[in-house]
Design goal:
The chain is elongated, with a radius of gyration of 22 Å. 50% of the residues lie in helices and 9% in strands. The chain folds into four domains: 71 residues, lambda repressor-like DNA-binding domains (434 Repressor (Amino-terminal Domain)); 156 residues, Arc Repressor Mutant, subunit A, CATH 1.10.10; 72 residues, no CATH class; 43 residues, no CATH class. Strand 4 and strand 5 form a beta hairpin. It is built from 16 helices and six strands. It is of the alpha+beta class. The strands form two sheets. A four-stranded mixed β-sheet has the order 1-4-5-3, sandwiched between helices. Helix 2 packs across helix 3, helix 7 packs across helix 10 and helix 13 runs antiparallel to helix 14.
Amino acid sequence: MRIGDAIRTARRACGITQEELAQRAGITQAALSRYENGLREPSEAALGALAERLGVTVRLLRSASRLQGAVAIDVHMRRRATAKATVWRRLEAQLNMYDLHARLLGEEISVRAVHRVPQFDPIETPPADAARMVRAQWRMPSGPVRDLVGWLESAGCMVIDRDFATTRVDGLSQWSSDHPLILVNERMPTDRRRLTLAHELGHLCLHNLEPMLDMEQDANDFAAEFLMPEVLIRPQLRNLSTGKLLDLKRQWGVSAQALVERAYRLGAIDAGRRTGFYKQFSYLGWRRREPVSDELPPEQPRLAADIGRALAGRGLTAEEIAQIAGFTAAAPDNPFSEPGRRLHIVPSS
């Protein structure tokens, strides 16, 4: 990766054009275009001005040249077909910037994870089998998954909440060196958020070698088995009604729609009954907002904030912590800036 790649990715992550960034940094658009395309190296003054306007440090932009490959590789995204390309490209760039920040931070500290996110060959391992193996490897209790974010973070997965400014994209993920990253839309209710997290975990476990057909369905099948194991949920899917769906939603922490889809995929209801439920949901207004969602315990990420607190415990100031992670002191999107808890870190060798 070149410095120009990092500048372009940071600009896209901010959602601004070349013209806007050039004006803010006091350089010409032609010069910025040459920087981004690797036709010219920016001077120290120009690089400093660009970094400041992008909310990152010069050290972060320069660190990109030490990485092999390019940005925007192996990014998985859960989005609707109607999501605008400008929106998902901005979010993709944001995820890649968090990748750079995480790698830079990894030069200073290492996170000691209790578990790991395993990887499977989806040709040899069906998604449902992979989900069962992950639950077994993590020694998760049978039944509903409580605190899914906590389980992900215990495996070294950094979950970052951000307002996507749209409801048409739920989340996206990729591997950052040895640790995975998940960026999730904080506008989602808890039930949809949990399904998105499990969906992205499915991508991380199954889709890291090369693109494949039916990747989204694979991730859906993984998420369904991970959150609603067939052996436990199947007996509960008999004689479904809207009232029973809400009771199951409270128990399993997933949406009524996800429960209907699970029942249909397992053969507990036929296509006609499935369509009937969706007509009821539309009549009741559940397609826009389901009831009971507010009753589910919210799940907030803690790992990034824990890292910030651990570094503060070493005597570092907020400005010094931001510098280590490659953010400017005033950057609004620094997940390490808030105090947290429960992290053990050791110096990186």
